[in-house]
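User: Show me a protein chain along with its predicted structure.
Assistant: Here is one chain, sequence first, then structure tokens.
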Amino acid sequence: MKRNRDGWVRGTTTRELWQLAWPLALQAVSFALLSMIDRLMVGQLAEAAIAAVGVGGQILVFAQTLAGAVAAAASILAAQVRGARDSSDMAALSGSTLVLMGLIGIAGSALLLIFAEPACLWLTNGNRAIAVPAAGFLRIIAPTFPFVLVMFAVTGIMRALGDTRTPVVTSVAAILVNTILNALLINGYAGLPMFGITGAAIATAVAHLAGTWLALRAFSRMTFLEHRFGLRDLRGARLSTTRLLVSLAAPIALDGLFWQAAALAYTRIVGMVGGDAMAAYFMYQSVRGLGYIPLGALGTAAAIVVGRHLGAGHARRAKMAVGRANVLAISASMGMGVLAIIASGPYLGMFSVKPEVALDAMRLIRWFAFVLPFEATIVVLSGTLRAGGDALRVSLMTLSTFWLVGIPLSWLLGVKLGMGLIGCFIGMSAESIAKALLFQLRYRSGAWARKLTG
């Protein structure tokens, strides 16, 4: 009987992970395509335009990291509250999350407007041909930042409660709006002026607003144990819930800031190699984003399932879900690596760049295919550890591998020893391998599996 029950648990766990993961993957594809479409359409202009959109987008992601931390914390807590079946806690969590997102969104918009150009100049090593249009790109998108954060919050709670369809619908709608407006505004079709990079920014901003409106509309129709969600939850925000949310979100934000600070540092190091290297790097980054899609989806699905089991007091089932998610993610990473290598030729052929730039991007894509299984372990285990309240340790391990392994090696090999872009990437790969090993050691200790609610 025990064997049959174990088999049933494993089977249902795997199915639940896939049922959560595939809509998450579709949503991630939509977000990745938003960035990729901007780069592809702008890429018909020049290498500097590709780099400008890449730099602007990277800074925008850096600003969104704080919001992503609150959304991730809300998702983890919502999963645990769902396991405990407490509607009053769920209403308080919803209201507290919306309040925090509003405050972060307003502050983030202000910071983006003020520091856009100085940040872009620093990232591009003073290259004004890239920095100035990148800053203009950011200033157009910045006012929509609060709306994007609200979308993060409500879709995170929806996913934790099992509604993975709505985030997909909002993302697909956003990409359709972005694609149509890109075609009209970047190249000036249908009698419109040719806006170039500015057109890409306008299209992205309008797409963000459309996605947010759809998410809020669906959120207001959702219920949990007879509680109906919506902006009315703002009145039910609790200080105690807000504190719990912040205590979980703070280390996640710290970890995200480490990731983004390292990403900016890597960009800075690549910028030291040259403008062509930066263009190749951002062409590769789009492929990297797509390669992460099944991994991120399985990692988020694992965190939701683990959080629900921990909230219900089922630590053994939580660990079983982690094992299944890790196997699935590593398998998916191998398939995505092969697909990336096969598709890299046609993809890179879409860009009007120098042959040597395309060749450098191709080399990075091939390297990435071999590193991707380590990234799979990182994504699944980092989400798992956070689901048990172990986010601070995740942040400390992230900090140590970035700043003690990856960044020093990237600078040493790529710049100091003259190995160029490939040398930079070897340093980045060493950081990923070290982080995967540290996360695995912490997971095996078993000390992370804790109930956070009730």
